Amino acid sequence: MSRPSNAETAGSNTPDHTTCPNCNFVLPYTTKTTDPARRLPFDCMSLVLQQLDIVDILRCERLNQTWRDFVQTWIHAVGLHLHFPDAPEIEQEPVKDKDGGNDNRTAEGKRRDENKRIADEKGRAVKLFKDTAALLSGKPTAVRTFQASSAQVALAGNCIAWFVDRKIYWKDLSRGDKGSLQRAREFRPRYYQDEVEERIPVRLWISDEGDYILVRTQSPTGHCITDHLFHPWNGKEIWYHEHSSSESMQIPLVFGEHRIYYFDSWRDGKKDSQKCIATRETETLRDSQRYRHKIRDVISPLVPEETFRRHLDFQSISRRYIGVIHARQTGDETFLAVGLKGTLATGDPAATGGILLVTLTRGNDNEKKVQEIQVDMPAETHAYIQVSASTRREFALITHDVEPVRTVTIRKFRPDADGKFEQRGIPTVIQWPGNNEPSTWLAIDPFKLLFARSNIMNGLDIGSFTLAAPDAAQSSQPAASETGATEKEDEKEVKRRFGLSKPVTLPPKDTSIRSRRRPYRFLPDQAMQYEHAVHFVDPGRIIVEIDCAAYGKHRYTYRILDFGKIK
């Protein structure tokens, strides 16, 4: 809208208003300063916010109450699907009356519940924006540093545990003292019997909610291995289980909502097999009971033993090959593992990969569903999964070159109404403009489309990917439906939003991969010789893992960066 000068408006024939060319909204001329959020219609203000990034949008939200209400409404109505096109819908619990029958609410009750549902959706959308903006601001609100004598560090929720010189420590990260790591609590796993011998901790695991810690210890001779399950908050040992050398090698892998999943490898004649064991985590269990339940389906070569071994290696905090999906309404759990199939290990380009999913029904361990998802993976491909921390019902498969990273592909999977997992939408393909950096220097949040890249000279760089706008050649092509071809519903949705009918390719570095602020320095000057890895830990937390081998033995240094609300 153009506004004439005071001299032009001095005459009596000068119009006293102007018209917006976008929506024909009549805006009167005035010499007073007017808040545009109070005068302009929603469509005009929406055009303004669409040109801003997430950090600037949240700055507008803090101007005053009028802007706050408008920005939050815009985020819920427009911004969520504009910046997060694959944002999951909120899972609503079915509404029933007190007797458990059908919905017998009054009209007023239904209206009240609908308003509550909208408020919940808006609150989650705004929280997603604020968490993302806090990361993109590049300003950590708390930085915690500690060292461990091995790579055995477990982090989940606000609980972290680690080893130092054969001692186990844990810490509640929600109780930081101005960003420092307060004095940690020491664990001393031991037998229930009176004959207690010194135990050596070798591995540890932590549940997703941070309410259980599983510690594996071994005797000084190495012939006896024992698992201990603890409540970290009160130090109580719930149960322990001893594994003798004559038994099969059982490796804890991941916590579920109601189970602990093990990898079991044993020799049956001359053939090695792998199975998954689920251990119930209830406080009533004792070692005298057979608490192990075996999933009787032998894991096929789709997930070989190397997948489980690799899951336990250094740099596995976020690069996981195994995960658990939990359905809130039914209580079912799905164990999933990504692996290689065919002859990929020999470098055969025709080899592929896949995902194995085993769904266990709550209350009936004998009822299970097994699903295999085939994924094309060329040779020299690194593939790992991430389970959404917000919903726990979807997961993403991230694949990229081993060294160096050139192309990153993100595929997202969600269950349908029957519980079968299907790929949602088309893969997001990122042409990464790296400079021969190792893959461990790059961390990707597949659900927010964020990246954290370590640079030894400049520090930690945090940024976001932007979806490429369709060029003239793509937008001029007829849609597949116009040519008579059939499309899947997810492809139609992507085409409707982005005007594309093929995987989304992101623009080059100068337009999409950029940090707003100076990178955060996290490595010492001599750190070029150190191996390190960067991990996203939802929500709003990044951990940097540094292998300082210069000390003569592996001494791992960890930096935990928390990003709160932007100031």
TrEMBL record:
<feature type="region of interest" description="Disordered">
    <location>
        <begin position="91"/>
        <end position="117"/>
    </location>
</feature>
<dbReference type="Pfam" id="PF00646">
    <property type="entry name" value="F-box"/>
</dbReference>
<dbReference type="InterPro" id="IPR001810">
    <property type="entry name" value="F-box_dom"/>
</dbReference>
<feature type="compositionally biased region" description="Basic and acidic residues">
    <location>
        <begin position="485"/>
        <end position="496"/>
    </location>
</feature>
<dbReference type="InterPro" id="IPR036047">
    <property type="entry name" value="F-box-like_dom_sf"/>
</dbReference>
<feature type="region of interest" description="Disordered">
    <location>
        <begin position="473"/>
        <end position="512"/>
    </location>
</feature>
<protein>
    <recommendedName>
        <fullName>F-box domain-containing protein</fullName>
    </recommendedName>
</protein>
<feature type="compositionally biased region" description="Basic and acidic residues">
    <location>
        <begin position="93"/>
        <end position="117"/>
    </location>
</feature>
<feature type="domain" description="F-box">
    <location>
        <begin position="39"/>
        <end position="72"/>
    </location>
</feature>
